[in-house]
Amino acid sequence: MLRPKYILAGEDMEKEKRVNMKQIAERLNISAGSVSLTLNGRGDEMRISEETQKLILDTAKEMGYPLEKVRKKRQTVGVNNLPVIVVFIPILSEGIISPYDRIMSGLNQCMKECGLNLEILVCPFEYNKLSEKYRYFSDKFCTGAIVFSVSETDLDELLLQNFEIPVVLFNRLNNKYPTVYIDDYEAGYQVAKIFYEKSFEKAAMFTPDYKSKPILLRKMGFEAGCEHYGIELPERYNIVCGLSGKEIEACVDDMSVNNRIPQVVFANMDDLGLRVLMVLKEKGIKVPDEVEVVLYGNHAWTKLVASEMNCIPLDIEGISAECLNVLWQMIESGNWTAQAKVYQKNQMMLTK
Length: 352
What we know:
This protein is an alpha/beta fold. Helix content is 39%, strand content 15%. It is built from twelve helices and eleven strands. The strands form two sheets. It has a six-stranded parallel sheet with strand order 2-1-3-4-5-11, covered by helices on one side. A five-stranded parallel sheet has the order 7-6-8-9-10, sandwiched between helices. Helix 1 crosses helix 3 (50-63). The protein starts with 20 loop residues before the first helix and ends in a 10-residue tail after the last strand.
């Protein structure tokens, strides 16, 4: 199977060097928080000495930090007179669990490491209906926004909008908005490689029937990897389904009746993995003695209710932190040019 081709957003954009607050802090060997407060006009309020404030402002000017542009772009609309970042997180149907806690952990991690003093507001939205929240994409409401896990329908509509604030997308490659994303095709391919290294020769895959490009790319990558490494993936065991369990039950029944239980089942989304595990147990198939179940993603609940399954972890915290870092650089510089940043730190490995 040929790997799909696509153009990275920002691939042909000018790669200019932009100065940010962290670089100024490193030049002066002082905290990023002091730099942020000074450049936001809160040095006196936070009792930063006049000498230090002058040094920060002079260095920022010398390094080409766009002071006037930033003051014009940045809004202080929070109750504490702080910049406000809104994070849009979807409410998914059929019992899908949003990794809210891991997203917020990543954002807090970025704020601490970069010395950011701002407010984070969470705005839930119904999957496929992000447009109902467009009124919040306004400089009267916030300074910038991060959108998590948009559907293809939501993304198509987003591409038609021109908002008055900078917007970053979590793991959604596109040609308009900056994004931090995983190479999902490569992730699926690497899952097959891991199976090969564990000497699995027969596999099944269950993929949720959501219109999601990352999920589709993982599916295609896993199929290509199985073909390359000689892992048997029968068409009847390569199932696209919802969480109702009907398709899963039919597939597992076929495995049982025909005595064709694969060595490993790959669930192409962590929430789907729990349903697969439940059906296998209901049919009397022992996990992991008779078949191993591996899911992509690692919600906290997997360690509590599904210890029999292996996980291919997704570094939601790290990607969330990098999304906020990219957004803050846009706010600092006033440059909202689209850029696509591949997240390189995600490790492909099995974890219990």
